Amino acid sequence: MRKLLNSELDRLEVASFKAAIKTPLIVVLDDVRSLNNIGSVFRTADAFLIEKIYLCGITACPPHKDIHKTALGATESVSWSYHPNAQELLLELKKDHQCFAVEQTKQSIFLNDFKPLADKSYVLVFGNEVKGVAQEVINQCHGVIEIPQYGTKHSLNISVSTGVVLWDFFSKLKGGE
């Protein structure tokens, strides 16, 4: 078995990415502190053709060398914008999208039990590395999705959580294609 060269991977150019049909999914990063986490989310969003990323609160925006270090150019392909307040943003987005916080709550739905519908558009909110998604932001969502965890720790790094959830959504929505 031979490892493929980058030139053999047949990846999209930025212009082709922008023109491609996207996964009907928007990511909201609210008060994410780590520039490396932000860059990693961009790179993951690129991998799964995510529609857009909204950066809210204290979440830093490109261009920044530490975002670029992990995004590896994905800030050029993935559509993004900054909004100062996630609560206000969700008030607008939930008119046309199903909005879910990724968090641990009493009424959360385990990710493996969640079945996204192909005819709906979704917004997934990821929060601060220490505090998670703020309760006020959760209150604006239609529901909460939780990644089941069975070890001793209570959470995953936000970039890992984003990767797990985006892959799950992508595979459920696009898996039959």
Question: Would you spell out the secondary-structure blueprint of this structure?
Answer:
Elements: H1 14-19, E1 23-30, H2 35-47, E2 50-56, H3 65-71, H4 74-77, E3 80-83, H5 86-93, E4 98-102, E5 109-110, E6 122-126, H6 135-138, E7 143-146, H7 158-174
Parallel strand pairs: 1-2, 1-6, 2-3, 4-6, 4-7, 5-7
Helix pairs in contact: 2-3, 2-7
Question: Care to give the gist of this entry?
Answer:
This protein is of the alpha/beta class and 177 residues long.
What report would you give on this structure?
- This protein has 177 residues and is α/β, with parallel strands linked by helices.
- It has one domain (17-174): SPOUT methyltransferase, trefoil knot domain (Alpha/beta knot, 3-Layer(aba) Sandwich), CATH 3.40.1280.
- The chain is 33% helix and 20% strand.
- It contains seven helices and seven strands, in the order H-E-H-E-H-H-E-H-E-E-E-H-E-H.
- The protein has helices spanning 14-19, 35-47, 65-71, 74-77, 86-93, 135-138, 158-174, and strands spanning 23-30, 50-56, 80-83, 98-102, 109-110, 122-126, 143-146.
- Strands 3-2-1-6-4-7-5 form a seven-stranded parallel sheet, sandwiched between helices.
- The mean pLDDT is 96.
**Structural class by SSE content:** alpha/beta
Q: State the CATH topology.
A: Alpha/beta knot
Helical content stands at 25-40%
Mean pLDDT: 96
Tell me, briefly, the overall form.
Answer: globular
Uncertain residue ranges: none
Number of helices, counting only DSSP H or I runs of 4 residues or more: 7
In what order do the strands lie side by side in the largest sheet? 3-2-1-6-4-7-5
Beta content: 15-25%
